[in-house]
């Protein structure tokens, strides 16, 4: 490490550590993160001399390093189960299952049925607009062509239809209790 880089380290070491600690909320992880940050700084030593605001540059490196570690951990946890390493894990357990459970499927179907029933209480124009957009999954342009109105009108109808549907759903106590407690 060069003399100038050592000076940067001395000046900003405590600041970077406290930033890492604030981000991770764990002393050991903060030290690991800080070490990773300083490794990146040493690798890009020539940039240190070109940077006008060293503290801001170091903060950016720290934040980006933290985000990268977080994303990496999220990706890893999606594919690996949290089990002790000594267990034999069948290969199929490592493959994520994105299918809904039976309970989730039944709940989804029940909610869909309730929403469709309440949609029937809307004016025809709002029913059609919601149906085209959410069920048939037409774009705003396609809906505007089908209904022979401007895109702004389609957006307005969607907004009003969703607001009215929400009012209808919230007005029915059985729906509110059943859906919100589930």
UniProtKB/TrEMBL annotation:
User: Which is a Pfam family this sequence falls into?
Assistant: Sigma70_r2
Report whether ATP-binding shows up as a keyword of the record.
Answer: no
**Keyword Transcription attached:** yes
Arranged from A to Z, the UniProt key words for this protein are: Sigma factor, Transcription, Transcription regulation
GO aspect biological process, one term:
DNA-templated transcription initiation
- Gene Ontology MF: a single term: sigma factor activity
* Domain RNA polymerase sigma-70 region per the UniProt entry, residue ranges: 9-75
Q: Mind telling me which NCBIfam families this protein's record contains?
A: sigma70-ECF (TIGR02937)
Q: What is this protein called?
A: RNA polymerase sigma-70 factor
